[in-house]
Amino acid sequence: MNEDYPYWLSKQMLSGVRGFNLCANLVALEGWRRGLNLNWYYNASEFTDLKTIGFQPIGKTFSLSSTDDTHFFFRSRGDKVSNEAVDIGTSKEETKKYLSKAGVPTPEGFRFTSEEKEDEIINVALKIGYPLVLKPTYGSLGKGVITDIQTEEELRRSLKYVLEEFDYSDFLIERYIFGEDYRVYVIEDKVIGAIKRIPANVVGNGKNTVQELINIKNQARKANPHLSTRLIKIDPEVEEFLKNQQLSLDDILKNGDVIYLKGKSNISSGGDSIDFTEEITPEMKSVAINAVKAVPGLNHAGIDLIANDNEIVVIEINATAVIASHLFPMYGKPRNIPEAIIDYYFPETIGKGSQSTKIYFDFKSIFNLLRSSSITQIEVADAPVGELYAKRYVISGKVQNVGYRNWIRNQALQRNLHGYTRNLKNGKVVVVVGSQDRKMVEEFKEVCMKGPLKSNVVDVQEYIWESQVNIGFEIR
């Protein structure tokens, strides 16, 4: 399993950034590092008609501006995706209409509501033939999706389950396609990244029970900023899936034995993600690109495919796709989808952020301010574009309880230096400063040596600082 962050990111800069906020932060950070002006919004509807989805837009809506242009974004989706395209993608039935019209293969199926009689639904389903898949028309994240329904008894039981357990009232039944599951990210006529998705599973070691193996795997997922909020949950679906394999949560698997815990491969349901960008076939690329072209005003999106030896079928289009799965796959190489998105919206900035990977902004502070509803818009201070040179100074002497850190902060801000200062338990003070101006950083050692009037600096030790630096200067 991948443990390291891509070189342009770090655990520190993404601390506390989780869920759908992660995708927004990744795109915003990429644009901001290129010198674009970044604004976050509490209620973006005051500034743009960009369509938002879900119940909590805070921390997901922002704008990026160059000298000549401004674009608004919601999560990974920018305003080059029309609101009409978002509406089409939200409805699985409408999506299928546009795909079918463009000749893009989709599974045969039909739509029904919770008001319709069960026997009538069963009769129509029989005309398609088993196996089947049942899913909500307007659902997401795999909620309410039941796959590989093989018999009438299973279909009736599945209908009862989704109607009782979920708030959905509008559904689709489709022919179930056997094959591998993929998420392909497309911008216009180019595939930017692809992941293969495998249903939630565990591998036996001859010692631990199934439940213990799930707990062990979840601990590993918690270390991944994307997967940490997408753990394997032990629910009735998992217990039923195990029961069908004559297994229970208390069984111990043989070493190397792989068992699947769910039929659907959604990462949000605990599925594995494997980078597949270099292995994706030309035929799969063509289907994914044609799917984006089939929806007017879509331009970029995540396309869900099922592929086997005989066919490639589009299951779903995600106009507001989760891109963090490409940057933080469970296995394989991370793909910089945000870079490609900013290239598309601001082509004049291509390559400008390649040396700015050490600088970042504190998203948690921005999010907390917006969530307090005390402020409607936050403009992030401009990023120093280019290679950042940084040093860590450790100051000894009478430097605590004499106003040293406040004095240092003022000195750093006057010189437009970024970093922080904090007291150490041994009575010393540490100062980290970074800038594109190497001379300014090195001369700050003399500033540290001077100190405020009440201080008495005895020594300043200096070290090269290789880690990331937060924009601005803070007292920790």
TrEMBL record:
Keyword annotations of the record: ATP-binding, Hydrolase, Nucleotide-binding
EC number per UniProt: 3.6.1.7
Major enzyme class: hydrolase
Molecular functions per Gene Ontology: acylphosphatase activity
Superkingdom per UniProt: Bacteria
Active-site residue numbers: 405, 423
Reactions mediated catalytically: an acyl phosphate + H2O = a carboxylate + phosphate + H(+)
Domain ATP-grasp: 96-346
Alphabetical list of SUPFAM superfamilies matching this protein: Acylphosphatase/BLUF domain-like (SSF54975), Glutathione synthetase ATP-binding domain-like (SSF56059)
Domain Acylphosphatase-like: 390-476
Keyword NADP on entry: no
Record's keyword annotation contains Transcription: no
Family: Belongs to the acylphosphatase family.
Protein name: acylphosphatase
Species for this entry: Oceanobacillus longus
